[in-house]
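Exam revision sheet. Question 4 asks you to relate a sequence to its structure. Input first:
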Amino acid sequence: MKISPKLAFFAIVSTLAYLGLAIWGLGGFAAFFAHAPLVIIALATLVMAIASLFTEVNLSSGEREDRGNRWVLPAFGVIGLLSGYLPAYTDRIDFWTFGGEGVRWLGALLFIVGGALRMWPVFVLGKRFSGLVAIQPGHRLVTDGIYRRLRNPSYLGMLVIAVGWALGFRSTVGLLLAALTVIPLIARIHSEEALLRAQFGSEYEAYCARSWRLIPGVY
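Answer key, structure tokens:
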């Protein structure tokens, strides 16, 4: 698979910038890397960035797009920037923090689990995985494997990552930002489901009837 130079550049720069915000927020390299769980989170972040280079994720509007949902992209961007810095900063000044190293280790574990859940569907969907809410050429439903009982496993992974990141810094503010992510995320899910329902009709309705939207047994 040929790796796009633009994708590689964006993945590397955005990842380093995100980690840079956290290192800055916590007070520098020495303070950040003094915590083994945060070292693991940093390594997991780099692994996900490298793995993304071997996917076919894109920003193609495909054959049909819900352009009205594009507002979620800057929303995710703003929340992401705040999440990169504020949890680490509140950890440094001990504002609304809780627990100790055990909480950090739990955060590292959740971050890794969330990362796997986030990336697995990206590889499964290939070119159908777009940053936009769109129907791609040759689009078909995937209703087996990781998608058998859960319609949005990658989005669940995104939330688990956010919670893991917050716990890595023992940050209540980080948890609030993770909760805030749910607003644009649910809006995106509803837009995607409306588009898929219009595209696949009864096939998609039947799939919805036997699967969960985001959290198995809950929603």
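Marking note for examiners. Strands lie at 64-65, 134-135.
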